[in-house]
Structures are given as C-alpha cells and as structure tokens.
Amino acid sequence: MPKIAAELGPLDVKRLKHSGTGAGETVAVGGVSGLVMQLLPSGGKTWLLRAMVGGKRREIGIGGYPDVTLAQARERARDIKDLIRQGVDPVEDRKAKRSALIAARRRSMTFADAVDKALAAKLDAFKNEKHQDQWRNTLQTYAMPELGKMTVQEITVQDVLRVLQPIWASKTETASRLRGRVEAVLSWATVAGHRMGDNPARWAGNLKELLPAPGKIAVEGNHPALALGDAPAWFADLRTRDGFGARAVEFAALTAARSGEVRGATWNEIDFDAALWIIPAARIKMAREHRVPLSPTAVAMLEALPKLEGNPQVFPAVRGGQLSDMTLSATMRRIHETAVAKGGAGYLDPRNKRPAVPHGLRSTFRDWVAERTTYPGEMAEVALAHRISNAVEAAYRRGDMVEKRRAMMAAWAGFLLGAGAKGKVVPINQGRG
C-alpha cells in the first residue's frame, strides 16, 4: 500500500519553509492523496496535486498560498480527482474554460467600439477623409442611439430594423447606405472574433424579406421639396429663428448646396471680397472644386454670424465640430409643425405630400429656374454641382459660368425674400460694409 502522509494543520502549513538549498521542494500535507505544498527558494508557496490522468502522471497547480488556504486546497484537490474519475482531463478542461472566457470577453465588445476598430481597419479603402467622415457621421446619427451600447454579439435582426425602419421610406438612400455600413461593421466583428452567427444586417435572404426594396419606394434625389408658392413664407419663418441650425438651413437655401457641404463649410472657404464660397474637391460629391457665387443676402447673413475662437466651422455644433444632418432636419420639421399648429397644411412636397427636408431645397431651386425664370437649365445644373451626363456637352463646357450664375443666385435670393420670379439684383459691392 502507498504510504499515507500525515495530515498537517493550518499552523503546520504556515511554518513550512524552504531549506535554503536547491530548487523547489515539496511536502505532502495529507488529507487528500497526492496533495503537496511546493516551497520555493524565494519564500513563495504553491499547491500541487500529483495524479494519474489517462495513464500519465501529472502535476496540477491548484493556486498559491495563502490566497488558497489548506482547506480550500483539499477541497479543490477532491473536485479534480472527481473529474479524473469521470474521465475528464482537468488540465484540458481548465484550458477550454479559459478559452471560452477569453472568447466571451472578446464578444463583449460594444457596437460603438466595433465602429472605431472597423474604421481603423478600413482606412486604406477610403479615397479621402470625407468618405471616412460620412461613414462615421451616418452611423453616429442613426445607429448609435439604438446599437451603440449593445455588444456586437447580442445585436439581432430586430435591433437593426429599429434603426432602419424610421428612415427607410423618408430617407431611403441614406437608410440603404446605413444598412451596408452596419453590415460591414458586424462583418468585421465576426471575422475579428468578437461575434458569432449570421450577420443581422445582411440584405439577401434576411432584411430583404422584411423591408421593401429601396428602388420601389424612392428614387435617388427624390427628397420632399418645398412647393414654389410656399417658399417665400417658409423662408420668412426660417429667418425669425435663432441658432446655427437655422442659419445653416438658410445658407443651404440661398446657395442650393447639399446639406453636408453646408455643414462642413469653414471660414477659409469664404472669399468675402469676391463674394464666393469655394468648396474643395474633397468635400464635393463629384470630387471637383465647386465655386458658389454668394448673393448679397447670403454675404450679409455670413457677416452677421459670430466666429468661435478655435473653431473653423461656419456653422459649429454646440460641443464643437460641425452640425449634424439631424440638426438641419429638425429645424425644417419645427417650421412645418409650427405652420400646422397654426391651422395650416404645413410645408409639404406637392407630389408626395411629405414634409419638405433640407435636401429638397435643391429641387425647389431647380423648379424655380425651370418654371419662373429664363435662366438655362444647364446653368442650374452647374449651380447644383451635378455631373454632366452628356459627354459632348461636358467637353465643350470647361468653365463654371460663375459670373452668369451670380445674377441667378441673386434673383433666387430675391424670390425667397418675396421679390418675384427673378428678384431684385443688388450690386455685389453692397455685400460688405
């Protein structure tokens, strides 16, 4: 029979010391066969269980003393022996549990953190910083409120639907891009080991079954626009409102520019002497510098704006940086709701009967050119910074007709101010005092 070690007590264990020579020494403590205390030359003490596992002798660490007491060491040793009797290798079992814990921790990454990581991984895929900002701003505006604090592992199809459904019909193009970006973030998280399972933002065989196809509910650029007859009253209401959001919408209306171009405008893009707003190619959809002649009304509005120290934005957000797209949309929504509260119909697109949105102001401008003026349509297309689809026309038209457009934009400002179809053109030297 194997020799049974004397059962030591807590005080005996506390008094055990290394002899001072050689490497680690072991002392059987009894109570559980194979349980020993290892005494290290450094003075440290650890628990080991010597046992046969699968026909091989193993030394299994149980922990250090005094963090693991004698009583706890004996209890753990008995549990390990029970596992061995059940045919379980305790060392491999421990490794598997540790791996599972690590995997679980990796899958605890929040969607907000995943966005940062995914963007960092995709930096080389972006042509310029504008595209990266578009990605981040879209996700920040629409996805973060619902998904930001959720772990990527727990996000389901229903969670993605909560993000998409409120804007799927009203902002279909934005919603479609948003879906693709959420899918890309979750795809990165899956490949990086932070989540498992199908991608809940996938379109084919997934969201396609729950949402109408984008092409069936919206055409690109088909944003609700102001009716021409409503524009002067709407503009008058807008000008009574305070705040950078209202001024950004006013500037967007006066210049027929895209919301993103207005929100990103910086003071160094404004040439007051020439009454020009020069938008660099990096911030333009067609990736080509765009010069916008500023009407005296637009120049006066800009001159009245305060400049915040250390902030280059013409229309800064309260917490710094540029305004969000939602800020401009909220301004227009409030104007519409105020008109409805006063007993009117509000400011609805005459075609689809939906409340007008910032991007729709460009359509209103285009309708004004076509229906109320004799300015050529190609001049309006240049003002809107649209790509020229006709290759021959594009080859011959190398300039941007900026001086001819100056009169058109002054007339547009006059129309918004209620001065009639072409408006009153004010000499440009009156734009600055």
From TrEMBL:
Describe the location of the Tyr recombinase domain by residue ranges.
Answer: 212-409
The species this protein was found in: Gemmobacter fulvus
Instruction: List residues traversing the bilayer.
Output: none
Provide this UniProt record's keywords sorted from A to Z. Answer: DNA integration, DNA recombination, DNA-binding
* All residue ranges annotated as the Core-binding (CB) domain in the record: 109-190
Q: Which GO terms describe its biological process?
A: DNA integration; DNA recombination
Q: What is this protein called?
A: Integrase arm-type DNA-binding domain-containing protein
Q: Which GO terms describe its molecular function?
A: DNA binding
**Signal peptide location in the record?**
none
Q: Which domain of life is it from?
A: Bacteria
As for family, the record states: Belongs to the 'phage' integrase family.
